[in-house]
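Q: Sequence in, structure out?
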Amino acid sequence: MLDEEKNGAADTSNQQGGDDSNSSNSGDSGNGGDDNKQEPTAEELKKQLADEKEATRKANEIAENQRIRAEKAERKGKGDDKKPDANAQAGLSDDDLYALVDAKVPRDDVNEVKEYAKLKKISITEALKSSVVKTILKENAEKRASAEAANTGTAKRGTTKATGEQLVDTARTTGELPESEEDMRNLAESRRKKPK
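A: Exactly. Output:
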């Protein structure tokens, strides 16, 4: 029982700050060598609070940056897996796409129709009914047709050997004789074989 009373008395002296074992340590902590432990001043508390706020702000900033990076990586990962819809990418609604297909607008002219509709602030369906767009589409179709015709005319043609009968017919109709010796021989042989 005496031990308990001594322990209880020691506890109360510790709470009051009058413990002799702490008095030697309090001189080392810069409290001026007072036997009683001093509470921090208002300036020290303000500084401690400001330091804690700064540490919390930095931790929140780091957490926010990590969250943003994670969201970007997640969006990038989803973007690779899912390919965007061609209609959405081109900025066409289903009705606009149907109108373009129904009007048989070539792929090369779709942008011109879209630009006209955007300029006039009308739908693509209405733009396709416009005489301006119809004229543009007709002119572009003519240009493509003439370019295609010109392209087929410039294709490299292989040389063919004329048959004996062709050489005879050419010589009779135009009076032209072949230039190579081989063609001259073929002409002569064909003429001998062909009855008059």
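DSSP finds ten helices and no strands in the chain.
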